Amino acid sequence: MTLVKICGLSTPESVAAAIEGGADFLGFVFYPRSPRNVTPEQATELTKPVPAAVRTVALTVDADDALLETIVATMRPGLLQLHGHETPERVADIRSRFGTPVMKVLSVASAEDVAKASAYEPVAGMLMFDAKPPKEMKDALPGGNALRFDWQLLAGAHFGKPWLLAGGLTPDNVAEAIRTSGAPGVDVSSGVEDAPGRKSIPLIRAFLKAAKAA
Ligand SMILES: O=C(O)c1ccccc1NCC(=O)[C@H](O)[C@H](O)COP(=O)(O)O
Predict the structure, then answer these.
(1) CATH number of residue 149's parent domain
(2) Which residues pair with residue 131 across a beta bridge?
(3) Where in the sequence is the domain holding 17, given as residue range(s)?
(4) Which catalysed reactions does the entry list for this protein (predicted)?
(5) How far, in Å, from the CA of 53 to the mean position of ligand 1?
(6) Is the pTM of this model over 0.90?
């Protein structure tokens, strides 16, 4: 069955809906520019009711060791999602320094972007392929922009690590995205919101139902 990560959670209600709907991963964003930003203390509270079978994910962007140390010490995430320009060496360093599995995100607009994954396969526990925002999109975030990329770029691809497809997924297009890309897992944020940063409980339920049925 397709793995599903619901990202950018910031309320107890949305966390509960994601768990009840069968999410495998719950994502918490530590990036002050994001409308989904949470503090380590908020994430710690939000993740208290999360059952052990559901993995909590701390999303950071080119974070320094001090921030990672604080997040790991307070929230104790099951996975660190690195959504910046972290090199393979930095990914390996973070993994060994903090003893937490790492998911490295690749920003994709072309086949060359997908090919960059091979450098991360030895050091990351998981990979994610997300849409690369175009340069002309001035206020773009590193992720969470409701942008999709050409899912065919991943069709037939094999990676040495489990991977998730992200970017512009919705309850309406997730089944087609899974079929086209062959993704073993998917990640969503904007597609389950009714305003930037405001998660919709009905959309979370609908996304999980559609992805799990695909
Ligand atoms: O969601 C954010 O605000 C965010 C900020 C900075 C870096 C990454 C961010 N989100 C990354 C995610 O994991 C999203 O779920 C992924 O990019 C897909 O986003 P969307 O297209 O909105 O579903």
Answers:
(1) 3.20.20.70
(2) 108
(3) 3-213
(4) N-(5-phospho-beta-D-ribosyl)anthranilate = 1-(2-carboxyphenylamino)-1-deoxy-D-ribulose 5-phosphate
(5) 23
(6) yes
